[in-house]
């Protein structure tokens, strides 16, 4: 895998612009801002499309998906927040960290799997993981946030 791919190059360029405190021309900055604002809705559309491909009856019986969902949506966030709450006392920072570790599996995983020509079974498993963690987040995010307040 190449280290210098378009994503890494864009991150390095963005970091350089930030450190140099250099502003892009207004028209370019506005265009990039609108492009960035499209990422959340596009991700939701992609996840919705993935959910159409999931065989739900089969997915409900897949123990690996249940295990991954519990691990990703409960065990890791609760353990992480327990540790982080003892390292930091800034509530805003902790809220950002909670949002980072307690959110569902990204929609990019199945897309990357398709792009790398992995097996169809791996693709279907990743679809199930994205679908389950997305649905579970409706319950687990508020629960993890509520439990994290006691740390």
Structure description:
The structure is a single chain. The chain is an all-alpha fold. The chain is built from eight helices and no strands. α3 packs across α8 (120-148), α5 packs parallel to α8 (120-148) and α7 (108-115) packs antiparallel against α8 (120-148).
Write the layout of secondary structure elements.
Blueprint: H1 6-19, H2 26-37, H3 39-53, H4 56-60, H5 63-87, H6 91-101, H7 108-115, H8 120-148
How would you briefly describe this protein structure?
The chain has 151 residues and is mainly α. It contains eight helices and no strands.
Keywords:
151 residues, mainly alpha
Inertia-based shape: globular
Give the quaternary arrangement of the chains: single chain
The biggest sheet amounts to: none
- Helical percentage: over 70%
Mean pLDDT: 90
Number of strands: 0
Number of helices: 8
**How much of the sequence is in beta strands?**
under 5%
Q: Helix/strand/pairing class, anyone?
A: mainly alpha
């Amino acid at each position: 895998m190449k280290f210098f791919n378009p994503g890494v190059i864009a991150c390095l360029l963005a970091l350089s612009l930030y450190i140099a405190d250099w502003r892009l021309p207004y028209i370019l900055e506005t265009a990039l801002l609108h492009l960035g604002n499209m990422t959340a809705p596009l991700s939701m559309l992609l996840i919705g499309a993935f959910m159409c491909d999931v065989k739900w009856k089969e997915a409900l019986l897949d123990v690996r998906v249940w295990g991954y969902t519990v691990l990703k949506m409960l065990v890791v966030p609760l353990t992480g927040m327990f540790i982080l709450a003892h390292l930091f006392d800034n509530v805003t920072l902790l809220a950002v960290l909670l949002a980072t570790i307690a959110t569902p599996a990204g929609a990019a995983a199945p897309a990357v799997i398709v792009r790398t020509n992995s097996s169809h079974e791996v693709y279907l498993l990743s679809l199930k993981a994205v679908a389950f963690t997305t649905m579970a987040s409706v319950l687990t995010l508020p629960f993890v946030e509520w439990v994290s307040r006691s740390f």
